[in-house]
Fold:
Amino acid sequence: MSSLTRLCRHAREVTDADRSRMKTVFSLCDVDSDGYLSREDLKTAVVMLFGYKPSKSETDLLVGQGRRSQSTGICLERFVTLMAGKLSEENAHLKTRQMFSAFDVRCRGFLTLEDFQAAFSRAAPRLPERTAVEAFRHTDKDSDGHVSFKDFDAVVSYGWANH
Structure:
């Protein structure tokens, strides 16, 4: 197992700087300034902290974990606890999901060659365009013009394991 794969599987320690950033994000996302994050505020906060928009089921889970009975949203203390837990549980799968979401700018749940080309252009503008084409063709195992998360995950996991 590569050192990167081992690193991604271990829990990440939450630092004081992480907690400070979470508090800042909470303040920025508390649009009503009422001391609570609504469901939509929470989604925005997750995007700011982790770089991806949480799915409906993940948002439901976070809201369910974050609300106290009869509360109007998630308070700062609970938000920091939830986000610290989320941060400490990051693993290779989550990182891959974030990468996939960064490629999937149209939120379709699959990637096209154009998505690969745009992502490669943003992340590594000096790479030849053929690199994105080759990467897409390698990932699109069934040559249907679409790369699912499962296919993307398999290629990224292989890369991490053989890096």
Remarks:
- The chain has nine helices and four strands.
- Strands lie at 36-37, 74-75, 110-111, 147-148.
- The first strand starts at residue 36 and ends at 37.
- The CA atoms of residues 5 and 160 lie 6 Å apart.
